[in-house]
Design brief:
single chain, alpha/beta, Barwin-like endoglucanases, 3 helices, 6 strands, globular
């Protein structure tokens, strides 16, 4: 986790968050539904929905508790006022095992983030 935050903070290219606010997660009833990109929603994948950004792009989500996760954008949303990102269940659990809503900062990593960041999100 510290490696991910250090990458963002010490990167040669300063990174500002593309979004700051409340994160929520997809409900269990949504599992298996098609996302806006055409993929099936899988609770175990590190994926997310945002109103902006290209499908297949990766984002770093840093929670106010200091935990972070890298997710792949594959859907549009959230459509609830005041929320900036919807996370898969697995991604939300990585940030907080029991929370339904979290305050986060979201950083854009592009479509080819460094492999060490992806390993952190898949472990």
């Amino acid at each position: 986790m510290l490696e991910i935050i250090a990458f963002v903070l010490l990167s040669h290219q300063p990174m500002a968050p593309v979004a700051e606010g409340v994160a929520s997660y997809y409900t269990v009833e949504s599992a298996g539904a098609r996302t806006a990109s055409g993929e099936r929603l899988n609770d175990g994948d590190f994926t997310c929905a945002m109103l902006q950004g290209a499908f297949g792009e990766y984002v770093l989500v840093v929670a106010e508790n200091g935990r972070s996760v890298v997710c792949r954008l594959n859907d549009r949303g959230p459509f609830t006022r005041g929320r900036v990102i919807d996370l898969s269940r697995a991604a939300m659990r990585e940030l907080h095992p029991t929370a339904g809503l979290l305050t986060v900062k979201v950083f854009r990593l592009g479509t080819n983030p460094p492999p060490e960041l992806l390993r952190k999100s898949l472990n």
